[in-house]
Amino acid sequence: MLSFSMIITPDINDYKGVVFDFDGTLIPSVKAYKSFEQFKNFVNAWRGMLPYKQDADKVLLALKERGINLSLATDMDDYMFEWFLKSKAMETAPLDQIFGSNIVTGSMVKNKKPRPDAIYMALRKMKLKPEQCIAFGDSLKDIEAARDVPRLSVCVLHDHNSDKDRYALDTLVPYQIKNWGEVLRDL
């Protein structure tokens, strides 16, 4: 079993494609309001003012510049995701320009996470095999979905959203990061 002190950061340069979760991974969590912080994030998202997590936009731009295929696999429905496509706070790395047609929302798949349907669709859109890619997520359901895709590398972004599932996440994935700055310095 890995403990949080034994984190292994992946070398993204080893991959041709990256599949990102969105909520809680690239942006602060706007999931069900379990805290005032999440409610505030939801309101800011609705107003088009919820920015990327620190350095997430820089990582996306650096990967795009290197020619690495990027895909987004989120459980968000289309109507909510539209807020982010139009968000002024995300102009540093506009989602439609970063991901193009490689965006998979919850409305596009039959089964949401922890089922791997969105991950498989993201891989098909990038035209890549699982062993050529790595998936990033912040929650147990993100990681379980990605782990159900054989030969796909998986990395968890640990933050306060993943604390309740820390033990399970530590046992499921060797690749772990605390923030996007850890990835950025290796690019």
CATH superfamily: HAD superfamily/HAD-like
Provide the number of structural domains.
1
Low-confidence stretches: 1-5
- Percent of sequence in beta strands: 5-15%
- What is the tally of beta strands? 6
Biggest β-sheet, characterized? 6 strands, parallel
**If you consult CATH, what is the topology?**
Rossmann fold
Describe the structure.
This protein has 187 residues and is an alpha/beta fold. It has a single domain (7-184), classed as Rossmann fold (3-Layer(aba) Sandwich). The chain has eight helices and six strands, in the order βααβααβαβαβαβα. The model is unreliable at 1-5 (pLDDT under 50).
Based on the model shown, name its key terms.
globular, 6 strands, alpha/beta, Rossmann fold, disordered N terminus, six-stranded parallel beta sheet, about 190 residues, about 35% helix
Summarize the structure.
With 187 residues, the protein is an alpha/beta fold. It is built from eight helices and six strands; from the N terminus they run βααβααβαβαβαβα.
List the helices and strands and how they pair.
Blueprint: E1 17-20, H1 36-46, H2 56-65, E2 69-73, H3 78-85, H4 95-99, E3 103-104, H5 117-126, E4 133-137, H6 140-147, E5 153-157, H7 166-172, E6 175-177, H8 180-184
Parallel strand pairs: 1-2, 1-4, 2-3, 4-5, 5-6
